[in-house]
Write a structure and sequence with these properties.
179 residues; alpha+beta; four-stranded antiparallel β-sheet; two-stranded parallel sheet; 7 helices; 6 strands; 42% helix; globular
């Protein structure tokens, strides 16, 4: 997390990939990683989430939003990361860190899971750029999710599971911790 230019150069030289977990870093008060500097130096960087000890949601969309906001606070204006940079870290960046050239973007011959969010709702009503709206105001409930060619979520609801039953069971299990 606290890297100098020499450390970053060494990461680039050795092909070291970085899984950046901004929500955890912010929650723990660990600081803001020099992601722009790493990218400029050729370091492979992907967006990630840590476990529940430092990130209650485990939500990559929340990490994209946290990352984008922390960049704006910590980096000089000409070097700031954009919403599309944040999206890229969560897609192509993650694939690069894993050494996977068969995923990370929607192209013929690549594996792909597909998530679709609506951009016509009230939460994005004032968003001039729908990508920035999704990154900065997310997370949002996915409208459609396709994994390995199979619908998992359709019209915002799980296809093969009862969300209400899952939620009730989750609450029942959570009560055990408060007894």
């Amino acid at each position: 997390m606290h890297l100098d230019d020499g450390d970053i150069a060494r990461f680039a030289e050795t092909g070291t990939g970085v899984a950046h977990c901004p929500t955890s870093n912010l929650r723990l008060g660990a600081g803001v990683a020099p992601i722009r500097g790493m990218l400029d130096a050729g370091v492979r960087v992907g967006l990630g989430v840590d476990g529940s000890a430092s990130n209650e949601r485990g939500d990559l969309a929340a990490s994209r939003s946290s990352r984008r906001c922390s960049w704006r606070a910590a980096e000089a204006a000409p070097r700031r990361m954009t919403a599309r940079d944040a999206l890229r870290l969560g897609t192509r960046g993650g694939a690069a860190v894993l050494g996977r050239d068969d995923l990370g973007s929607l192209e013929p011959g690549r594996s792909a899971d597909l998530a679709v969010w609506r951009t016509d709702g009230l939460e994005l009503g004032g968003a001039e750029d729908p990508v920035a709206g999704l990154i900065l105001s997310g997370p949002h409930r996915v409208d459609r999710l396709v994994v390995s060619g199979e619908d998992v979520v359709r019209e915002g609801r799980l296809v093969r599971a009862d969300e209400e039953a899952i939620s009730q069971e989750h609450r029942r299990q959570a009560e055990k911790f408060t007894e």
